[in-house]
Amino acid sequence: MIRSARLIDSHGRVLRDLRVSITDRCNFRCLYCLPETEAAQNFYRGHWAHLPDSAPIVQQWVPKAHILSFEEIERVVRLAAAFGIHKARLTGGEPLLRHGVEELVARLAPIEGISDLAMTTNGFLFPRKARALRQAGLRRVSFSLDSLDRDNFRKITGRDGLREVLESITLAQELGFHPVKVNAVVIRGLNDHELEPLAEFARERALSLRFIEFMPLDSARAWLKEMVVPGREILERLQGRFDLRPLAPDNPSATAKRWSLGDGRGELGIIAPVSEPFCGHCNRIRLTADGKIRTCLFSVIEHDLRVHLRNGSSDDEIGDWLKGVVWQKEARHHIGEPDFQPASRSMSCIGG
Fold this sequence. Notes:
Elements: E1 17-21, H1 38-47, H2 70-82, E2 87-91, H3 101-108, E3 116-121, H4 126-136, E4 140-144, H5 150-157, H6 162-174, E5 180-186, H7 195-205, E6 208-213, H8 231-239, E7 245-247, E8 257-260, E9 267-271, E10 284-287, E11 292-294, E12 303-304, H9 306-310, H10 315-327, H11 347-350
Parallel strand pairs: 1-2, 1-10, 2-3, 3-4, 4-5, 5-6, 6-9
Antiparallel strand pairs: 7-8, 8-9, 10-11, 11-12
Helix pairs in contact: 2-3, 3-4
C-alpha cells in the first residue's frame, strides 16, 4: 500500500477534491458544451460572427477500450483517499449513461477517507436510478437546469426534457439527498433574463442554486467574453429582488460565494471563474473517463494515468507518479489574457 502523504502542488495548495468522469457520452447537446444540433449551430452563428458557416461541430467519442473500468476507478479513488482526498464527484458527459453506475457508487461509498461522494447529472435518466443510487451510498446530487421555459430549455440543451428534470429534482429531495443543488450556466442573450425566476424556483423548493459564468469549454470553440454575464452583475440583479444574506464559505477552497435567499428557504451561490478567478485556493484534480489526469479544468496538457493502471505498476509507483503530476498543477487559468489557449477538450470529455 502507498505511503500516507498529501497531494501538494508547487504553489502550496493541498488537494482534497477529485472529479471523476465515468463517460464522455451525453444525451444532451448543450450550447456551452456539445452544440451539435442545428438550432445550437444557428444560435452560435447568429451571435458569434467569428464562427464560419462551414465550421464543423463534431464530437469525437473516446473508444470504449480506453474507458476506465469500475475496478480501475475504484483503485484510483482509493489511492487518492490515501493521499488526503476526501471529496469525490462522479461526472460525465452524463454519468447515468454508464451502465451499472450504482455498482460503482457501491464500490466507492465505503472507501475510508471519502466523506463526501456526490454526482452531477442533467437529471433526464435520474428517476430510473435514483433509489438504487441512494441505497448504494450516494448522498449528494447536483442537477443542471439552465432554463425554466420549455422552449428555451430545448434551445439550450437540444432536448425537450424540462419536465423530466423538474421531476428528478423533486424525487431527489423526497429520497433524502441533501443538499440538492441546481447549476445554471448563464449566457448573455440566451437565459440571463431567467435569473430571477430561477432564484425564485430555488427559494420555493428550498434548493441550493448555483449560477455559473459561461466558460470557454464548448466543442465549437465559439466562446466570447462578451457573452459572459459577470458574477457581480448577477448579484446586483438579484439583490433588487431578494433579501440576500451572505453565508460563510462551505470550506476554504469553496468555488461559490453564497447567500441565503432571505427566509431560510433556499440558497444562492455564484461561481465566477472568468470575472473573479479563485485559482489561488483551487484544491481539485480531475480524472477523465479515459484515464487522464487534468490538474486544471483549462489544462492544455493531460497526464496519462491509464497506462500506469494497465502496465502492472504498483500502488507506490502510481502514488509517486501522481505526486509528481500534482506538483505541476497550473498556478491559474489564463482566460481573458492574450496567451489564453482553450482547454484541450470540451467539458463533456473533461468532466464537470
